[in-house]
């Protein structure tokens, strides 16, 4: 990496840090809520949770093959935050959410996610350890997808939240959800899985939207500040690209 690239990288990181700190402080001082850009998946999630509670059916949550101590660590943590938010809402139900994983490192994360959700509602006695299920199949496994489709049918789940690392096998899961008339919200860090999610999900999440669950569903200041910082940096990046293109065109002319 040459010196100019290193300098540019440092400037971008510093800018992101400053914008994040300022946005977080602004979010803490403002009493009212923020009007984020609408993400249909986060708009529909509370309604899907409510429908599952009324029908006395469990939610089905899965990060796929995402796990800790690897390239998918950040994705696993982001998925856990989303699952915490929806589990916290469904904790008042008599039926506990089901969380399925295929990476063994995600097992303790899954237990902690569900336990914290019930603990936040002072209903920790309703937490069921057996509802975190491990199917040791690995990345892009049709066996894992088959196990999930069996879970969807055997437990008669009310809604499916497949947010994590999935490949083309997500199509098999989506087909099972469609045949059982079960809503599906999906997202993946794999290109093939994201393509399937965009095509078949009722409300897909795209790109960095996976990391915004805490702000959209929880509305805590640091998480709200991070979303504001992302949007500000996005517009600054767009402006920089446009300015660079104009300058390049001017020099060429």
Can you offer a commentary on this structure?
The longest helix has 32 residues, at 221-252. The protein has helices at residues 3-29, 40-54, 73-90, 106-120, 142-154, 170-179, 191-200, 213-218, 221-252; strands at 59-64, 98-101, 132-134, 159-165, 184-188. Helix 4 (106-120) links the parallel strand 2 and strand 3 (132-134). A five-stranded parallel beta sheet has the order 3-2-1-4-5, sandwiched between helices. Helix 1 (3-29) packs across helix 9 and helix 5 runs parallel beside helix 6. The radius of gyration is 20 Å and the shape is globular. The protein has two domains: 16-39 and 219-233, no CATH class; 41-204, Rossmann fold. The chain has 253 residues and is an alpha/beta fold.
Secondary structure topology:
Elements: H1 3-29, H2 40-54, E1 59-64, H3 73-90, E2 98-101, H4 106-120, E3 132-134, H5 142-154, E4 159-165, H6 170-179, E5 184-188, H7 191-200, H8 213-218, H9 221-252
Parallel strand pairs: 1-2, 1-4, 2-3, 4-5
Summarize the structure.
The protein has 253 residues and is of the alpha/beta class.
Please describe the structure with a list of short key phrases separated by commas or semicolons:
5-stranded parallel β-sheet, 253 residues, Rossmann fold, alpha/beta, 2 domains, globular
Share of helix among residues?
55-70%
Based on CA inertia axes, which overall geometry fits? globular
- CATH level 3 topology of the largest domain: Rossmann fold
Distance separating the two termini: 32 Å
Strand order of the largest sheet: 3-2-1-4-5
Number of E-type strands: 5
**Which spans of ≥5 residues are poorly predicted at pLDDT below 50?**
none
Q: What's the architecture of the largest domain in CATH terms?
A: 3-Layer(aba) Sandwich
Rg for CA atoms = 20 Å
Oligomer: single chain
In sequence order, what are the helices and strands, one letter per element?
Answer: HHEHEHEHEHEHHH
Which structural class best describes the helix and strand composition? alpha/beta
Mean pLDDT: 83
- Counted up, domains total 2
Number of helices: 9
Share of residues in strands = 5-15%
- Given this structure, which CATH class of the largest domain is correct? Alpha Beta
Biggest pleated-sheet summary: 5 strands, parallel
């Amino acid at each position: 990496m040459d010196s100019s690239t290193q300098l540019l990288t440092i400037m971008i990181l510093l800018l992101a840090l400053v914008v994040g700190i300022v946005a977080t402080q602004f979010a803490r001082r403002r009493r009212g809520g923020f009007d984020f850009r609408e993400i249909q998946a986060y708009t529909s999630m509370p309604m899907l949770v409510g429908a599952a509670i009324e029908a006395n059916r469990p939610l089905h949550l899965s990060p796929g093959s995402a796990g800790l101590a690897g390239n998918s660590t950040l994705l696993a943590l982001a998925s856990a935050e989303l699952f915490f938010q929806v589990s916290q809402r469904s904790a008042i139900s008599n039926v506990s959410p089901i969380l399925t994983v295929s990476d063994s490192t995600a097992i303790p994360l899954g237990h902690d996610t569900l336990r914290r959700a019930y603990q936040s509602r002072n209903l920790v006695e309703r937490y069921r350890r057996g509802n975190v299920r491990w199917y040791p199949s690995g990345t892009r496994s049709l066996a894992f997808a088959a196990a999930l489709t069996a879970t969807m049918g055997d437990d008669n789940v009310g809604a499916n939240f497949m947010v994590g690392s999935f490949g083309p096998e997500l199509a098999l899961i989506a087909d099972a959800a469609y045949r059982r008339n079960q809503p599906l919200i999906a997202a993946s860090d794999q290109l093939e899985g994201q393509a399937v999610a965009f095509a078949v999900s009722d409300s897909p999440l795209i790109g960095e939207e996976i990391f915004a669950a805490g702000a959209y569903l929880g509305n805590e200041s640091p998480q709200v500040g991070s979303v504001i910082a992302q949007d500000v940096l996005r517009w600054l990046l767009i402006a920089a690209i446009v300015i660079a293109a104009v300058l390049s065109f001017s020099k060429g002319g």
